[in-house]
Amino acid sequence: MTPVQPSAQDQAVTTPRWRRAVIRLASLQPRGNPSGLVYGMIVASVVVTAEVHYEASHVQVVVATAATVVVYWLTHVYCHLIGESMGGSTRRLRWQAARHTLGSEATVLWGGGIEVLAITVAYLLGLDSSSGDWVVIAVTTTLLFCWGVVIGVRNEARGRFVLLDAVFAASLGAMVAGLKLLLK
């Protein structure tokens, strides 16, 4: 005798509203490797944090951050191709896989782009460099917390474990704040 699977309607009734909202929100995530969002956000926020300590102009901070994210993305793609070639039956890079990998790892650009947008808006609103990088750190930490909630809900974690996923993800952003304080 096979167990009866609950219908979608039954699941909707038993799934708390906040979980359904998180799942709907998660559907907005760009296609590709979701870890790229985290990489892109962290790389960009670290670059912004480091750049402002060199008394770079606002334009230099934005351009250097965007360029670093692009270089990191290309490096990430290349490393993925190297990993495939070293783990497979051939020791040659499969350049024909590059197009697919460029697309699936483009989430790094999304994550970095969010931070570039945050620092640009902060500067356009008249914030100085020091305040602007705190905005980027806040955006990073907040979005990573949200991403941790999405991860917990998608993995069907319950209550405190969803919170644990979220706090762990946000702690990565908090580490960037720690880096900023060390650089003072």
What key attributes describe this structure?
single chain, 184 residues, mainly alpha, transmembrane helix, transmembrane, membrane
Tell me what the structure shows.
The chain crosses the membrane at residues 60-81, 102-125, 131-150, 162-183. Keywords: Membrane, Transmembrane, Transmembrane helix. It contains eight helices and no strands. The chain has 184 residues and is mainly alpha-helical. The termini are far apart. The chain is 77% helix and 0% strand. The chain has helices at 8-14, 17-26, 35-52, 58-87, 98-104, 107-124, 129-154, 159-183.
Overall average pLDDT: 84
Distance between the termini: 67 Å
Biggest β-sheet, characterized?
none
Question: Which class do the helix and strand fractions yield?
Answer: mainly alpha
Tell me roughly what share of residues is in helical segments.
over 70%
Provide the succession of SSEs.
HHHHHHHH
Low-confidence stretches: none
- Beta-strand percentage? under 5%
Number of strands: 0
Computed CA radius of gyration, to the nearest angstrom: 20 Å
- How many separate domains? 1
State the helix count: 8
**What general form does the structure show?**
globular
Q: Outline of this structure?
A:
The protein contains eight helices and no strands. The chain starts with 7 loop residues before the first helix and ends with a helix. The protein has helices at residues 8-14, 17-26, 35-52, 58-87, 98-104, 107-124, 129-154, 159-183.
Set out the fold topology.
Layout: H1 8-14, H2 17-26, H3 35-52, H4 58-87, H5 98-104, H6 107-124, H7 129-154, H8 159-183
Helix pairs in contact: 2-7, 3-4, 3-6, 3-7, 3-8, 4-6, 6-7, 7-8
